[in-house]
Design brief:
Oligomer: single chain
Number of strands: 12
Largest sheet: 7 strands, mixed
CATH topology of the largest domain: Alkaline Phosphatase, subunit A
Order of helices and strands: EHHEHHHEEHEEHHEHEHHEHHHEEHEH
Helix content: 25-40%
CATH superfamily of the largest domain: Alkaline Phosphatase, subunit A
Distance between the termini: 12 Å
Radius of gyration: 21 Å
CATH architecture of the largest domain: 3-Layer(aba) Sandwich
Strand order of the largest sheet: 8-9-1-10-11-2-12
Number of domains: 2
């Protein structure tokens, strides 16, 4: 038996006015997904435990069968593991976004123009983070560059008691002053964020980007504090070898900590321009190489939700349908039996541009045990089946055991 999960990050949504009051899942032309859904088990699953924030870290861990209430130690620590940082038990990690802030003189009056600095390239961002490290780096603070706008700060002998370090994608278009932690423990971190604007506003990379009509990465934004991860090996929990295919360090970090394979895919960006076919082929190859479980993660729907791009969110769902599912299905023809699960980790509604904790639709197709499903898989059709799974861990058991 082979098991494949197609995780459309942030795909679930609320009705969108620009889409005629429908969700992107309802509007998208997804014949391959819906063809499977007609012969599959469909329902809703609660991926975010009560009392936990609906981040992609918590929700993806849940879907992958790692109970976040037991194993979660923070988002940035998983990303640091992916980057290759050898963390000490006394280290604290923080996500370091390169962001675009407006140009008001008073830092508190600036607006979060763009949480990803115009989807800055990895090469450009590396130069920005190198300058940040040269200016702020020390025996206490160490900056590491990651992918695109996503980077890490390692704080030696730090603390996670920092008050509220707000994710920048939660405050797009808002004045930042009310979202800066007032906790004394965070004072140095907020100072570096303030001073980074003066350091970076005239950085050569940014001057070139501005000349090209692109948004500058004119500040850093620190959030997502965490400690060294303590995930058990996936094979130890589920008695099978697993692989994760993703463009983002968060998912690759989960894979590394759980001792799962995480093949690199050239051109994988985490947005709508990603190498969809390359990721699909990497997943198929992982099965051929002896993995029984492959988790194919696509960030694009989530990014489009954060950017309030309804048409692109629809397009991202359609692209996965047309450019990924056929390759996966073709690769699975070699096996006598297999299961495919398709779902988001959480909603990223266009109307709010941030994550929500609502239950999400899921579909489980079993080659040798087809059932009567739904005509089209979406939020309402999943709700209409009456099937509700209370946690990601329970869904994983249902997926693996039937």
């Amino acid at each position: 038996m082979k098991y494949v999960v197609l995780l459309y990050d942030g795909m679930a949504d609320y009705p969108v006015p620009e889409l005629g009051g429908k969700t992107p899942m309802e509007v998208a032309d997804k014949p391959n997904f819906d063809s499977l859904g007609k012969r599959a088990t469909v329902g809703l699953v609660k991926t975010v435990p009560d009392g936990m924030k609906p981040g992609s870290d918590v929700a993806n861990m849940s879907v992958m069968g790692f109970d976040p209430s037991i194993y979660y130690t923070g988002r940035s620590s998983l990303e640091a593991a992916s980057i290759g940082v050898d963390l000490k038990d006394t280290d604290v990690t923080l996500r370091c976004n390169t962001v675009t802030l407006s140009d008001e003189e008073n830092f508190e009056e600036k607006t979060m123009v763009d949480y990803c600095a115009g989807d800055i390239s990895t090469a450009e961002a590396a130069q920005i983070i190198n300058s940040v490290e040269e200016h702020f780096g020390s025996d206490i603070y160490k900056f590491y560059s990651g992918v695109s706008y996503r980077h890490c700060l390692i704080w030696s002998n730090g603390t996670t008691q920092l008050g509220t370090m707000t994710p920048p994608h939660d405050i797009s278009g808002r004045v930042i002053g009310d979202y800066l932690s007032k906790n004394e423990n965070a004072a140095d971190l907020i100072r570096m964020m303030r001073q980074s604007y003066d350091l970076l506003k005239n950085h050569p990379v940014n001057l070139k980007r501005i000349a090209q009509g692109k948004r500058p990465a004119n500040a850093i934004w620190l959030w997502g504090e965490g400690k060294k991860p303590a995930l058990p090996p996936f094979e130890e929990l589920y008695s099978m070898k697993g692989a994760v295919v993703s463009a983002v360090d968060l998912l690759k970090g989960i894979a590394k900590c759980a001792k799962m394979e995480a093949p690199a895919v050239e051109g994988a960006t985490g947005y709508i321009d990603t190498n969809f076919e390359g990721k699909a082929r990497a997943g198929v190859q992982a099965l051929k190489n002896g993995c029984d479980y492959v988790y194919l993660h696509f960030e694009a729907p989530d990014e489009c939700g954060h950017r309030r791009e309804p048409q692109n969110k629809v397009k991202s769902i359609e692209l996965i349908d047309s450019r990924v599912i056929p390759i996966v299905l073709d690769g699975l023809k070699d096996y006598d039996d297999y299961k495919i699960m398709i779902l988001p980790d959480h909603p990223t509604p266009i109307t709010t541009a941030t994550h929500a904790p609502d239950p999400v639709p899921f579909m489980i197709y079993h080659k040798n045990r087809e059932v009567c499903g739904v005509d089209s898989v979406n939020e309402e059709s999943a709700k209409g089946t009456g099937l509700f799974v209370p946690s990601g861990v329970e869904l994983m058991k249902k997926f693996l055991e039937g």
